Amino acid sequence: MAGRRGALIVLEGVDRAGKSTQSRKLVSALRAAGHRAELLRFPERSTEIGKLLSSYLEKKSDMEDHSVHLLFSANRWEQVPLIKEKLDQGVTLVVDRYAFSGVAFTSAKELRLADAATRGEFGCERYENWAFQERALRCFQQLMTDPTLNWKAVDASRSVEDVHEEIRTLSEDTIRTAVQRPLEELWK
Ligand code: Z5A
Ligand code: MG
Q: Could you report the per-residue pLDDT of 72-104, keeping only the tens digit for each?
């Protein structure tokens, strides 16, 4: 339909919830259904800022916490002109993590000061331990109480196909209704 904007569909969640797997499958399914759809991810590690973040996450470099937070934010802002342009052109964007990860992971760092939980390392990158991920999950749950955001919780413990089917259906609904919300409201 002419003049119809694209939808901004963000997949958020803790480490290894299956966000990247589902984001890729969703873009393929939407395209197969005739939608214009593209994939974005954050951190976007290919940019100069993204390379700094990648090095930090891989523990090859250290950075002050506030600075890292702002770099994650800058890494999103550098893509915002492109995001607006695509949405305006009617392209639906599937985004693998966005600002909610920024809030949840920084908040999880702050909570750490009050949390005496023991840690079990289960990954190579920074933040990949159970205690940290539990704190991040609590922050995501808190963010989901915001009624102005159109959050849908998806149980990611099921099979890839079952999770995909639910996300695909929710996304089709979102694409249908996205036109009702002006683009400018997304970055107020
Ligand atoms: N971070 C931050 O601090 N501040 C910010 O502003 C932003 C991010 C944007 C790197 O992110 C870190 O950056 C992240 C948050 C922080 N730290 N942590 N945690 P990333 O997005 O680059 O992280 P990643 O390395 O891609 O991991 P991930 O995103 O957490 O994984 P995932 O995308 O959710 O999962 P996946 O790659 O799709 O799947 C993982 C494995 O599980 C894979 O082998 C799949 O085949 C398998 N899988 C997937 N789904 C299923 C189901 N349903 N059943 C069984 N197996 C499955
Ligand atoms: Mg991922």
A: 999 999 999 999 999 999 999 999 999 999 999
108 CA from centroid of ligand 1 (Å): 16
The pLDDT of residue 79 is 98
Name the H helices within the chain: 19-32, 48-57, 65-77, 80-88, 99-111, 130-143, 160-177
168, 29 Cβ separation under 8 angstroms:
yes
pLDDT in tens, 151-160: 999 999 999 9
Closest CA to 102 of 132, 61, 73: 73
Residue 101 near ligand 1, beta carbon < 6 Å: yes
CA nearest neighbour of 105 among 75, 149, 148: 75
Looking at per-residue pLDDT, the higher value among 110 and 136 belongs to 136
**Whether residue 147 has a cis bond before it, omega within 30° of 0:** no
Amino acid symbol at 141: Q
Rounded CA-CA distance 148/145 in Å is: 9
Model-level pTM greater than 0.90? yes
Residue of 10, 16, 100 best suited for mutating to test ligand 1, as the one with most atoms within 8 Å of CB: 16
Secondary structure tally for the chain: helices H, strands E: 7, 3
The answer to whether the CB of 40 is under 6 A from ligand 1 is no
Residue 150's pLDDT band (cuts 50, 70, 90) = confident
